[in-house]
Amino acid sequence: MIDPKTIADHNLTLDEYDLIVKLIGKEPNITELGIFSLMWSEHCSYKSSKVHLKKLPTTGKRVIQGPGENAGIIDIGGGLAVVFKIESHNHPSFIEPYQGAATGVGGILRDIFTMGARPIAVMDSLRFGPLDKARNKAIMEGVVSGIAGYGNSMGIPTVGGEVYFDNCYSLNPLVNVFALGIAKKDKIFYAKAEGAGNPVLYVGAKTGRDGIHGATMASAEFGKETEHKRPNVQVGDPFKEKLLLEACLEVMAKNLIVGIQDMGAAGLTCSTTEMAAKGNMGIEIDLDRVPQREKGMTPYEIMLSESQERMLLVAKKQEVEAVRAIFSKWDLDAVVIGKVVEGGRIKVSFHGEVVVDLPLQAIVDLCPAYRRPNAPAPFPKTAATGTDLPSPADLGPALVRLLSSPTIADKEWVKRQYDHMVHINTIHLPGADAAVLRIKGLDKALAMTLDGNSLYSHLDPKTGAKIAVAEACRNLACVGARPIGVTNCLNFGNPEKPEVMRQFEDTVDGLAEACRAFSIPVTGGNVSFYNETEGVSIYPTPVLGIVGIVKDCAKATGPGFKQEGDSIVLLGENRAELGGSEYLKILFNLEKGTPPSIDLELEKRVQEVCLKAIEQGIVRSAHDTSEGGLAVCLAECSFLSEDRIGCEVDLHEDLHADDLLFGECQSRIVISVKKRSVKELLALAQKMRVKAAVIGTTEGNRIVIRNRGRGLIHLPVRDGFRAWKNAIPEAFKVR
Amino acid sequence: MKFGVVIFPGSNCDYDTYYVLKNVLNQKTAVLWHKDHDLHGVDCVVLPGGFSYGDYLRSGAIARFSPLMQEVREFADRGGRVLGICNGFQILLELGLLPGAMLRNKNLKFLCQFVYIRVENDRTAFTCRAKKGRVLKIPIAHFDGNYYAPPDTLRELKQKGRIIFRYCDEKGRVTEEANVNGSLDNIAGLINREGNVLGLMPHPERASESFLGSIDGRVIFKSIISCLSRPSPLSRQKQKKTIEPAQRVRT
After folding, report:
1. In this complex, which of A330, A440, A554 lies closest to B9 when CB atoms are compared?
2. Distance, in angstroms, between A622 CA and closest chain B CA?
3. What is the ipTM of this complex?
4. Alpha helices, DSSP H, located in A114-199
5. Is residue A325 packed enough to be buried (19+ CB in 10 Å), middle (13-18) or exposed (0-12)?
6. Cβ(B199)–Cβ(B88) under 8 Å?
């Protein structure tokens, strides 16, 4: 008998339980209840988010596969397609940072190669609490080495990403992992079980008791005692996954299978039920044949285990031996555990008895969708502009403090732990606005970036979301790439709280509006709710992964100044918008104000000027202004130039110095061009009705910024560079 | 001449190495599966980078038991050229074809970055096209690259000119700071007594196309090509540059 406590332990409401009984026409047994608890969890069912996610644009002429599969697929021409997705692994990474992050990488990579694509890049968006707390450092250290440990061993380069720091992530670190693969357009595989009588094969690692209830765990808040949840986190084996990758790609290349799905969250339960449901078929499996790592596992445990590095595939009936031979070449077992049948039910047997007999539709499609109540959050919207604030005596030290803020500071400490060069495609090493990869055999290059400023989203979720899209596209524009597709990871607190739900809805509205403006389809993503520990929620954190194409790989542009004597041109307008800035946060400990405004039409025109100029071959370097504003942007252009060339900048603005230097108003790009190309660039800008001004020259070994002749910044590059370079290593120094 | 790149189950620089040899340097290149017993008549065997068997034990510790390694050992004993890159170097150490062992990097972290290495001996088949003292900019990517050998081994390596590459700075100065992984005596690459087996931690295949930031890695492959493409061993011996350390010792 299932009592109310058992139902609650499975994170189901009594109403949901009653619905289950109605749908299946009987009281479920414990294994069946376990199956529902996984498939109806927030993590698997998107029950709180799906009514809203429908608002996102998902179509376009390049789209081969939109949301609903393991990953989205976009046509890139030349008979090739890119397969990409982002996923969160926040909860496990908090409990066990190394394995949590490592299995996050493993999971997203399986989502990619399950579709027939060879993964060629990983990026991560990481968010931690401030580094002055030992626990945050330990989490960051574990997460970074977990990502490195898995990705490096698999031989997939981690080519970029972002690392943000804020108090709200102290007990809720975020680990969002993006992966991208390349497939031949005519060799894409789907998670579909078709053809009655076709055998169902289990391949990869053996099943153990690890990770039971992982998906359910990710669908609830954490209290004080997270230690006991540690066994819910799986342990990764990248070597096994590498074997699985090669073997799966080989059986796919030889056309031996009809469908394939990885066993990630919700393991055997999710893969069997989803594949059969998608193919409008039924499925029968025998648990006695499932390879097991431990003795005495119950059907409940086998069905709910989230052991890593496992795949389920449906082979063509006559090809079973050929499939086995390939897996055996890679030292892996491939075991027939069942077959595809007619009839729309899943039947699971164990020791000769049927232990699960359920209609698939109830499990996969009929989970209730909630339009949860929403209410506006009491945002601290006090206006904050430069004129309200005491101006720091000297702006130079303020700039140095910003440069050494971990969010802005150099991330080499992180990046060099990742193999970012394997596959020999990485044109821009991490640190550029977007990662750029050549595609062997084609002239074009792929660009990709992850973005999202959660402080803006906290202050105004809709604007924050729009800016996240705009900035990601701007980052692509800076390297010379036009966006072709989006994946997003939406990280929020408890959706049962009305103010969190409101943040989520506003965010989705903002994303939808911005993606439509840029005409880019959302091909999938992930929603992570319940990022709350001890009642403290994260800021709403939408992370956008946007992929683009650089037409001519030779023209891909970087952020660093190239040569002394080049002219520096600022595209876009300087406005007094200091709200939500890193400047207020770092210097005044203020996380408030109105975040910068965003005009998507203007943004598009600014990006178009940059793109056209790059395509015309006149741009030497391009970098957008983001956290830290114009002053930080100029400093980075210098630090990222090979010879660390400084700059002399003269502005003519009627703005307070703080606003001008550190305000984060949007739609601005700093471009350096040869002197003789200035005219061409300005003409281009004028044609696109974009404000553009020559603001200075690349020269010397200082960063000098003046406004109307008054000196604001006069900083030796060496000093700024040291602050920027050393901030994170210093925080980790053993004292 | 013909190269052969060995593929272990967890190799991940195999295709990169193959691509550079075949598509960038236009060399005949074969893929050698670790479970086979056939070297397909290659003239130079390359053990590529990666995590041959996951490297959960010691890097390269299991790979040395792969069936093909028996052939590679015999090939090396016959004087065949073997190049081990990164994990390939670690495997050569485990195989005993090169002396010493690898420890964890001194900062206990994986390191992926460009480094500079100095050519310490240009009288080898792997460096004959690079002048002694030349500084090469080549990336590393490893967790266990902190080379160690007992004092008498080190002494012999030094005396016999068997240290082929040392970590250095941009200007070629062999400094503590440039020694990012903490290797004994800044050793980045070394050769066997006979001069036909070289292991190095940096990845020359990652520095063979200009858009990747350096083409300095090519000189290693090109040295092998020019050395092995010569008509006969006799005429080879006449050329001063190609006298290998072992031959020097003998004469």
Report:
1. A330
2. 18
3. 0.92
4. 134-154
5. middle
6. yes
